[in-house]
Amino acid sequence: MAIQSARICILRDEPPREDADHVLYLMQQSQRAAFNPALELAVEEANRLGLPVLVGFGLLDGANGFPEANARHYAFMLQGLSEVASALEKRGIAFLMRRGTPSEVALALSKRAALLVLDRGYLTIQRRWYAEIEKGATCRVVQVEGDVVVPVETASGKHEYAARTLRPKLHKRWDEFLEELKPRQVARPAEGLKPKGGLDVSDPEKLLGKLTLDTVVGPVRRFRGGHGEASRRLKSFLKEAFEGYGAGRNKPEAGAASHMSPYLHFGQISPVEIALAVRAAKSGDPDDRSAYLEELIVRRELAMNHVFHTQGYDAYETALPDWAKKTLAEHADDPRPHLYSEKELAEGRTHDHYWNVAMREMRETGYMHNQLRMYWGKKILEWSPSPAEGFAVTLRLNNRYFLDGRDANSFTNVAWVYGLHDRPWQTRKVFGSVRYQSENSLKKFDAKSYEQAVTRLCEAEEG
């Protein structure tokens, strides 16, 4: 139950402030009250100092909104944070959401804090907030990693070439990090500790309506945010769909998906909690467990490694290996039989029927099976005037419609379409030696059954 020392980093080494009235935890990446090592460290420190815990959250909207986030993303996030506020209150922990950047909110609330605890994310905007906090804080600042299994620097000190180079490093270390984390008992409840200026998150839909957001892409019914819903989905998956996961995971119509990616993106469930549940599942066999942990840990943490070690992970010129850019440039002038605008792609108006079906699932429900995401991205490369334009359009559509868009996985998977974490293949038109994916890949699963499932899901969205 101890929090592993490798998860903890002291950013500002000051003694705890003696005239403080609370310990502050800025909740930013780990948006959950369960299995959250940053929260539990804050409780431990508050108990040691005889102080209550205040959890702060900075909410961005309007001109200062989170880049590319829209009402779909905010609705899901606010549902989760409403649950967080209620769960923290039951534990005797105060929760305060304020408009502002996480760094602005943290620095304002830390003026009376004995120390400030941060969680951790790897995107550029998140790292900028942490740097601003480290520079501007006047109290002790401790950061705790809670959203990967093996902390990124512990797993590897360099940008990894591919999954095969990171995999053995993760396998060597992950057992020491796959441990239960029980909630600590709060010694001093935060009665009366709630600074002014907070937003009421008890009614997520009402709060959503007060925010200035892009509402063209609206909330979905298919997924509801929060740790409780994530736990329910995980239990259902392990009981009803985990058997045969290793063989069925690449078949969209098989229903062999846990749908954890939106919850992981918003930090609403811990990857350690998921991994422990998968290991303990009574259904499934060793191949099913191995296949799931490969996706959850190796592939996901390869993405974290990529964004951590790559400046400009969201740009064509800086996100891709040199060999991929070279071969794509050599074939940039190849004839392209089909070209589509971003609007045509978003509306699913291409000649490829099943591509359009996949785009409909993404546009209307916020999700697409991984097998189809790769096909979807490869076709945008094929149908774009240039690889650089294709990269930008793929990323914009990904981040706009997917609930788990704007994630380390998103940036990495889009770059994979263009050669990242891959090797040269047979040379062909447009793609050069970057991996090609043809319509024949649709024959690997029952595409008609997939279309029927998408139709049912989209009809449910329409009510």
Care to describe what's here?
The chain has a domain at 316-462: DNA Cyclobutane Dipyrimidine Photolyase, subunit A, domain 3. The protein contains 20 helices and 6 strands. The protein has helices spanning 37-49, 71-91, 102-109, 124-136, 152-155, 163-173, 204-210, 227-240, 245-248, 261-265, 271-280, 286-309, 316-319, 322-330, 342-346, 353-365, 370-382, 387-401, 408-417, 447-462, and strands at 8-12, 22-26, 53-59, 94-99, 113-118, 140-144. Strands 1-6-5-2-3-4 form a 6-stranded mixed β-sheet, sandwiched between helices. Helix 4 links the parallel strand 5 (113-118) and strand 6 (140-144).
Could you outline the blueprint of secondary structure elements for this entry?
Layout: E1 8-12, E2 22-26, H1 37-49, E3 53-59, H2 71-91, E4 94-99, H3 102-109, E5 113-118, H4 124-136, E6 140-144, H5 152-155, H6 163-173, H7 204-210, H8 227-240, H9 245-248, H10 261-265, H11 271-280, H12 286-309, H13 316-319, H14 322-330, H15 342-346, H16 353-365, H17 370-382, H18 387-401, H19 408-417, H20 447-462
Parallel strand pairs: 2-3, 2-5, 3-4, 5-6
Antiparallel strand pairs: 1-6
Helix pairs in contact: 2-7, 3-4, 6-12, 11-12, 12-19, 16-20, 17-18, 18-19
